[in-house]
Amino acid sequence: MSGLSRVLAGLSLAAWLPLAQAGLFDDEEARKAIMDLRAKIAQLEEAQKKAASQQDVQEQLAVLRRSLSELANQNEALRAELARLRGANEQMTRDFSDTQRRLADQLQGFDARLKPLEPQKVALDGKEFKVEPEEQRQYEAAMGLLRRGEFAEAANAFEAFLKRFSVSGYGDTVRFWLGNAQYGQRAYKDAIATFRDFLKANAQHPRASEALLALANCQIELKDVKAAKKSLDDLIKAYPGTEAAQAAKERRASLK
């Protein structure tokens, strides 16, 4: 039996016992006693309901407080994780930027190292063409020998160049300077052959008139006056108005 039931039973017994012992109550008094008893019972039931309701509310509030505390802890953990992720993202961004800069520097350095190995555009004697770095280096080295008056070494360098780079854009110019190097070392017959090959393939070359004048000079050195006169006459006719043609006229007039 619950506490409330025991209380109600006690109240009922306490209310009815005096009347039962006396046996002297009428209907009106009985109804009044019953109503009083019912009122007390209702009050007790209401009090019990309120107590139970308050207990339920307290329990619910306790659950809510625990849930709120858990949510607060989770929120704090999320904040900490978000801060960590932001820091990691910022670090990744810095690392990525550093990597990009290093890569750009490496590419720039690579391009700088690669550039000397790439073909270079050259403009020479009225035409443009591309040459390999080694091709350009050997040509300039041979020209350096010629400028220093080292004619034999220059001739060898030009001949080696033509063998190695047989289709070079430098080819025509190299043949012209080879003839001059041979002339400089007094290899006149070789120079004549070189100049003739040059003129045969390059009659319109910017240095053709100079080559024909040099050929005539070689013939003069060999005392072949007849051939020299013909070369000078051909020069004056083919390339009038050039400095070489003017020099040819003067040289032609000096020949007997």
From TrEMBL:
Similarity comment: Belongs to the CpoB family.
Gene this protein is translated from: cpoB
Signal peptide boundaries: 1-22
Main location: periplasm
Location relative to the cell: Periplasm
Job description of the protein: Mediates coordination of peptidoglycan synthesis and outer membrane constriction during cell division.
UniProt keyword annotations, A-Z: Cell cycle, Cell division, Coiled coil, Periplasm, Signal
Residue intervals of the Outer membrane lipoprotein BamD-like domain: 135-255
Species of origin: Inhella inkyongensis
Cytoplasm recorded as keyword: no
Domain of life: Bacteria
GO cellular component, one term: outer membrane-bounded periplasmic space
Family matches, as InterPro entries: BamD-like (IPR039565), CpoB (IPR034706), CpoB_C (IPR014162), TPR-like_helical_dom_sf (IPR011990), YbgF_tri (IPR032519)
Protein name: Cell division coordinator CpoB
GO BP annotations listed: FtsZ-dependent cytokinesis; protein trimerization
Span of domain YbgF trimerisation: 66-121
Gene3D superfamilies, sorted: Tetratricopeptide repeat domain
Coiled-coil segments: 27-95
